[in-house]
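quick one before i forget lol
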Amino acid sequence: VTGAVVLISTLIQAVGALIIGVLLYKFHKNLFGKILNILCIVSIAIPGFLLAGAFIDIFAVKYRWMNVATNIGIVRYLPPAICMSISGIGFFGQLLSQAIENNMMEDYVQYSRCRGLSENRIILKHALPKALIGLLPNFMQMMGLCMGGSIIIESIFSLPGLGYSIMTSVLYRDAPMIHATILSLGISLVFFNVLSEIFKTKIRRS
């Protein structure tokens, strides 16, 4: 369950950060870009458990578009994944925008402009791929943090994942289960950190 939530959250963050990052760079000089930048800052500041509580209060209690704890299918995993991904979208969207801006100052961009290529083509074909490669190690580390950060959100949505198992094990004083779940989260965090370092090494060599 935790793996499914983290995977869906990662996909949402990747797509959302890609869109927000490009929009932030394209419109950073006008009012829309400034408003979008403020929204990114706000999304980073709001904790995930607050979003989870508000999500349940609005969509489950007020409008009754979903159940509080007995959802099935994608509806079971999508709400906690959305709540986990909001801050990541704002954070990585700003990082991607800055990375695109740095790449647009490189010499190859000036050469591409001299060849007559449009700004949009330079961004999509050259600057954006290089910016994404540079942010990939940080994104892998974020996946490990999401594994640990899912504890409270899983409890709020009553999902039987690792976080929910830790909470119930603490309440019932089940020491072996506590040790096993904490060890699993620790191994996953180490795994994504090692994967991030591998990507960093390959990027530096290339």
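fyi The two ends are 37 Å apart (CA to CA).
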